[in-house]
Amino acid sequence: MADNPYVSLPSKAFWRRSVASMSAGDVDPVGTFDLSLSPSTKVATAGSCFAQHIARHLKASGFNYYVAEEGHPLMPEHVRVANNYSTFSARFGNIYTARQLLQLFERAYGRFAPKEGPWVDPDGTVRDPFRPTVQPGNFVSAAEMLVDREQHFAAVRRMFETLDVFVFTLGLTECWRARADGAVFPICPGVDGGAFDPRYCRFYNQTYVDVVNDMRAFIDGLKAVNPAARVILTVSPVPLMATAAPDAHVLSATTYSKSVLRVAAETLRLQYDFVHYFPSYEIITGAFNRGRYYADDLRNVTEEGVSHVMRLFLKYAAGEHELTAAANQPRKKSEDEKRVEEFAAQAAAFVAVECDEEKLDSARH
Amino acid sequence: MTKLLIVGDSHIYALREALETKPELPDGVSIELLRNASEKNGTIIGDITVDDAVKRAAALTAGDLLVTHYRGNQYNTLGLIQHPRPFDFVMQSVDGGKLQPGAEVIPLQMMRKYFADTLRGGYGKIMLRLKAACPVRMVCITPPAPKEDNAHIVEGAETYFKQHGISDIGVTPAPVRLKLWTLQQQALAEFCKENGMIFLGNPTSARDQEGYLRRRYYAEDATHANAAYGVMVLRQLVDILLQDAISAV
User: Fold this and answer.
1) Which residues lie below 8 Å from residue A262, measured CB to CB, with a gap of 6+?
2) DSSP states along A51-95
């Protein structure tokens, strides 16, 4: 057989050997992934819906899932979770586009102040246009929303400045932006809060150049505030719910969006040695699984699919055994957490004593 | 003879002390006060178990009134002693939306839901059992408004604070405590509305212009009201009882 460059390539370079002949659960499409995480590495997450799965599994797998905005500990954890604290590393809700991520960064550092005011629902409650579903029941006033937003920005800055690894899941290219200043909304105004008015808001479908430029600006900004930060990019395998691209079919529009994002991710990986790509998109969408990683709606990802992604992530990002062992250990509480717990016990004990003294006092009568 | 059966936790002692002052009450009204029993260090403290309270409620007859006064200090458990991470929340109706400088702001809707859920999943269950058993109207009393004077609270709690090394922590600013109390009473009012119970707020004259408990109604400790306050609440209850009788006529 004549010598050629393919002869010496590993099995993963060949479709038949690494895809067609493998059982679905064994397919491993990771090319290069040389980022190592330890249980103490602070891993922050942001992105579209699929990123929520990543966050959830990171936590369960013994990684140090970094939450910079955990909510006030006066409220029990389950209450905070129900209010979208810790869904991501800060309470920013879903970040679908590169532009949205860049603008979040710029807004948090005071470099961009969109003109869009609060969205007021018919019942008088108020939404933040840039995270309109983050507060169940909405905010009670514009003043409360603005105070919460400032606290949120402080948490976002803390997150960017102190994280070790930032996992960002690119979701879409389609967005709605304000005509006045280009501010992009996570959801089209009028869909879930706000009101749609074409005089103030228009559709935009980001190009490859847009995405790469936005991500470069973000990454450069991140490195400026946190020189040691590393980045993992993934592309969400969740198809578009709907497209607003003129005359487009949602399937073709999905292919466009994901293709742009995938190429942008590769471009960034090649440009920056601290940017890594993890192929969760390929694991879920690959023909090898014959569509079984999608639920009946052909859109949501099944738990089996998410597990496949995270199994491989564990394999490459860390020693699997080390992290599994870490996951089985009770989480070590921080000094702050201990202080808050002690306080809660003391406060409850004090009030109990007050009430008991009432009882004792009554016994005297 | 019509009867007021009052069951509850520590705040009922203001009513018990009030009765001891022998206030003027209409003839033909009997009042019984029973403290919910709980176990502490192997000793049962209090007068009556929930099961027995349900039986007593079931035995009430036309014209009587069942009154509950449970968990009045829930809001104090959350916010009497200053939290290591000072907090506040926006409540326009209480103080015009002012916030404590430097405090972490908790979204109001989250706080509201917490109080509502804690009531429904906790002592509200006892109240529903009583309501289901009793054949007469049921009134739920809200706890007295908080005391504005932090110095009074610290003074009353000094020994405890010193014993537990928390003297330097201090007391939560009064406006925050007032908002917590408001949330608790709003949750109770909503629960009463949903379940056909009568919600009884503080006597109007018991609170000052800003909404705090007037000093003359302070008990010596940090959280409870005194006998004079109890007398006013008893009068509120008797009014409801008599209105009931008038309606029946």
Assistant:
1) A235, A281
2) HHHHHHHHHHTT-EE--S----TTS-HHHHHHTTTTSSSSS----
Q: Which ipTM was obtained for this model?
A: 0.89
Contact across the interface for B81 and A71, Cβ inside 8 Å: no
Dist. CA B34–CA A294, nearest whole Å: 60
Interface residue of A134, A138, A336, A354 to substitute, partner B, most B CBs within 10 Å: A354
Beta pairing, strands B2-8 & B29-35: parallel
CA triple B32-B34-B40, angle to 5 deg: 165
Between CA A357 and CA B103 the distance in angstroms is 32
Task: Convert the pLDDT of each residue in A123-133 to its tens digit.
Answer: 999 999 999 99
- Residue A63 · residue A54 · CB < 8 Å: no
Q: Average pLDDT in the A266-275 region?
A: 98
Q: Which residues of chain A form beta strands (DSSP E)?
A: 42-47, 64-65, 119-120, 126-127, 165-170, 174-178, 184-185, 201-205, 230-235, 275-277
Among the partner-chain residues A72, A340, A343, the one whose CB lies closest to the CB of B106 is A72
Q: Mark yes or no for CB contact B45/A356 under 8 Å.
A: yes
pLDDT band of A323, cuts 50, 70, 90: low
Q: What's the pLDDT band for B154 if we cut at 50, 70, 90?
A: confident
Q: Which amino acid is at A338?
A: K
B24: alpha, beta or left, given left = phi > 0 and alpha = psi -120 to 50? beta
Are the CB atoms for A170 and A211 separated by under 8 Å? yes
Cβ–Cβ gap A75/B35 under 8 Å: no
Residue B76 one-letter amino acid: N
Q: What is the pTM of this model?
A: 0.90
Among A118, A236, A102, residue whose Cα is nearest residue A156: A102
